[in-house]
Amino acid sequence: MFQKLRALLVTSKNLLLLEFFTSIVVLLTLLPQCTQTTEKNTINNYYGASPEQYEQVWNRRKKEVTERLPQADDKEKQLLKVELAKIQVKQNNLHPSYEKYITELKERIAELEQFKSSNPQLFNKAIGALKQGKNKVADDLFAQVEKNNVDTIKTVAEASFQRANIAEDEIRYADALAHYQKAYRLTPNNTLYLNRLGFIYNILGKYKEAFKYYELALKSDLKTYGEDHPKVAISRNNLGSAWESLEKHKKAIEYFELALRSDLKTYGKDHPQVATYHNNLGSAWESLGKHKKAIEYFELALKSDLKTYGEDHP
């Protein structure tokens, strides 16, 4: 049809209409490409770092830690060894580790976009940087929020918390701990901050401190939400993990079972969080040498995840 109309315009020697028509055809030709490019960029921005960039982060971080180790004192050396072990786990499980990073990034961005900041301009820029996988830029922007909003405690606390998340993502645990501590000091009743602080202490092998913050989180959540709430289940699961780290497997099982019972009521049996608790219980029973019992829970976790994700998911 375009060819026939063009021929008609040429025959009629209407050059202005011919030029206009040619421009329209060019635009119509380019439009699908522009739309496709825009959609691709939006997806890339939302998903943060590419798999290649993600791999480079761990290669670079491993080099930093390895070079620092010989110069470190005994206390720092212990921390660096923990970090090096965690980096190695990431490198050995690169694909599932990347998938987990993407999932958690999406959740974090969704929560951040709901946060009512007293400095929305800087927060939005930081969110944009996180979406592009530019953690250093995001960290600098959150640092500006901390500096420029000292009179708004909630906003400064959230900025500190986000800086802790970034440091934890990059396995910079000393920095993560410092930022989580600041967030907690500013808003001591925020159970999310309490749980993350407990988590870092647990990673660092400081179990007494980990229990302290996990138990504070559980107490607060029970008071706020009651027994059968997902946040209460998370706090109980965290306590179970802490007991598991101490090889107190029976105690761990108590907390894992409470978390499982709660989330079964909330979500039903085929939910990813329920699968996680089944898996945790399987690990705990396996540690006690109860292999048949462990297999029961692992099979429940597998069955649930197959329904949720399908065969080819990490």
TrEMBL record:
InterPro entries (alphabetical): TPR-like_helical_dom_sf, TPR_2, TPR_rpt
TPR repeat boundaries on the chain: 157-190, 191-224, 233-266, 275-308
Key word Repeat present: yes
UniProt key word Repeat: yes
One matching Pfam family: TPR_12
Organism domain of life: Bacteria
Coiled coil: none
Keywords recorded for this protein, A-Z: Repeat, TPR repeat
Name the record gives this protein: Uncharacterized protein
